[in-house]
Amino acid sequence: MRFLNFGSGLNHCGSVTLHTPRLTLRKFTRADVDAMFHNWASDPEVTKHLLWRYHTAPSETRDVIEYWTSQYRRRDFYEWAIVPVGFDEPIGSCGASRARGKRGVWEIGYCLGKPWWGMGYCTEAAQAMIQLFFDRVGCRELIAMHEIGNDASGRVMQKCGMIPLGGKPEHVRSDHGILLCQVYHITVDSYRHSSCAP
Prior knowledge:
Largest sheet: 9 strands, mixed
Distance between the termini: 21 Å
Radius of gyration: 16 Å
Number of helices: 6
Shape: globular
CATH superfamily of the domain at 4-139: Gcn5-related N-acetyltransferase (GNAT)
Strand content: 25-35%
Structural class: alpha+beta
Number of strands: 11
Helix content: 25-40%
CATH class of the domain at 4-139: Alpha Beta
Order of helices and strands: EEEEHHHEEEHEHEEEH
CATH topology of the domain at 4-139: Aminopeptidase
């Protein structure tokens, strides 16, 4: 596969399909609207710690997926459907974007439907993204953040070898208002020396 360099020193490859022992991370399609709406996007318990509010109608989910599918032509766009092996529909999503105000640093994120919480799927998906960005894209540092009080998300970051950044928690604007968030990070050097690297 030919990778493109966008002048940032990174060799972007876009939302290529990723495989883990229990998951396939793939691009969303329009056929995923109902599964996304019912499995996680319409659940207030899932979205209460996220930047967006829960969807009240499938049309909202359709708009999101249509935007994502329109962006897949970009090599610097990363958004995946999380699909367990042997399961025919997504149970969550994960993705990465440029970290605001941090040149060359990317931020990863994830969300999962409530029936699948506590199974280690988010950790597995996050580890796959970290491996992609360090081993293929050539990123030097990744961050992730969670709202204070959302300890389960913080444990995912810790299991991936991420550590809290020093300083005060960050205030992040969301559809729910201002969230107070703890920021974690991992550098390529610490990744190479961690048990999380393949």
